[in-house]
Amino acid sequence: ADDMHGANEGGGVHAAPNTLEPYWMPFTWNRRFKQAPKLVAGADGMHYRTPEGGAVLDSMAGLWCVNAGHNRERITTAIQQAAAEMDYAASFQYSHPAAFQLANQLTAMAPHGAFDHAFFTNSGSESVDSALKIALAYHRANGEPQRRRLIGRERGYHGVNFGGISVGGIVNNRRTFTQLPDVDHLPHTHDLEHQAFSRGQPEWGAHLADDLERLCALHGPETIAAVIVEPVAGSTGVLVPPKGYLQRLREICDKHGILLIFDEVITGFGRLGSSFAAEHFGVTPDLITLAKGISNAAVPMGAVLCRQGIYDALMADAERQGGTIEFFHGYTFGGHPLACAAALATLEVYKEEDLFARAAAMAPVLEELVHAFDDHPRVSDVRNLGMMAAIDLKPWPGRPGELGYELFARCFDKGVLVRLAGDTIELSPPLIAERHHLETITATIRETLDEIA
Ligand code: PLP
Fold first, then answer.
1. For position 17, what pLDDT does the model report?
2. What pTM was computed for the model?
3. Is the ipTM reported for this complex over the cut 0.95?
4. How far is CA 57 from the centre of its chain?
5. What is the CATH number of domain 76-352?
6. H-helix or E-strand containing 303?
7. Which of the residues in the chain have pLDDT under 70?
8. Which keywords belong to this entry (predicted)?
9. Residue 289 Cα: closest atom of ligand 1
10. Measured from the CB, is residue 262 less than 6 Å from ligand 1?
């Protein structure tokens, strides 16, 4: 039973026996998974393919990232061509043209014409920690080195590096690990009393942003470097910002000279029906963190977009100080040639197929389908915005997360990949999804829920 389905018998350099055991899977119930593994071996469009050849409809765009659908030929061809040309180039002291092309394109498409530089990373977690460092470096360059405090938010997810878990607000990701000093948190915006079963943005809750004024009064606004939020909190269950909330955060940050960072690792590249959430909400942050959909996930990549004036401040400071390197930070693989090739091809696909507009057009269909669960006896809340949605299930008493896993496992066996975060169903299909795909996804969820709950 330990043999990995469909894997080579023996083979490989050392011909080690092929079992599931040596792989320590991230954010996974390993003991349960290894009793009944769920594996995929191929992908195309809206579907994965199992090693046995079965089709699995993807309701999650992989992990909120394959926005243009799987195995897009233009993207895979671009990667193959780039790999044949040049395996690797660093961007420390020398670089390659595709990195500059991509920085040009990203800044050109960035919200409100307000961003003029891009810094490349390899993941969302790296983008977050890079953005936090850019914020601190900016204030130092601007003659305010005392601005070192970072403000995150309860139920925020900003990846798993030490910066990200410190500003993040998920207890299980934090309790075991040390944190950055000088961090505080805003309250999250999810309130069942006032917002249950909201369609799109809740009416109630803009005032929760005013808690930033309380933190300014508590710590001294001149000590605060940056506030980081996901415009829509994704991983903790699609928590949609109340109307006016993000605008209010922006106003308070402006009043006190605090940088506002939008973590758009999920919301970037069309998820809300526009290039970025900043555009959707009409709010311009100072830094935007990106990853996932930037390369359609075909090669790991991330980026930080910087608002006009941030890069310039670091250049001017280095000029005054007589320094050479302006920012002491970077990754060996940042701006990797294969990632840049994948991202450039991905941006072409988004544009040519007008996928962000397509997402905007399909969003009402997703909204109708998920809110059909509003009166389901096993459901405690339903939320949605753009092409993301969440359905909260009432957990099995004393066994949090087990109903969720059971639902995931049974849906997978029926040919639908559904992401469960604990007992919350999270939907974020590729932006190429058609009505019938979304209907199949929600029908399978309903049938399975009725079977087990
Ligand atoms: N920030 C946000 C908002 C995310 O949703 C994620 C991943 O889901 C991350 C950061 C971390 O990205 P990665 O897993 O690529 O490090």
1. 64
2. 0.96
3. yes
4. 21
5. 3.40.640.10
6. strand 302-307
7. 1-17
8. Aminotransferase, Pyridoxal phosphate, Pyruvate, Transferase
9. 1
10. no
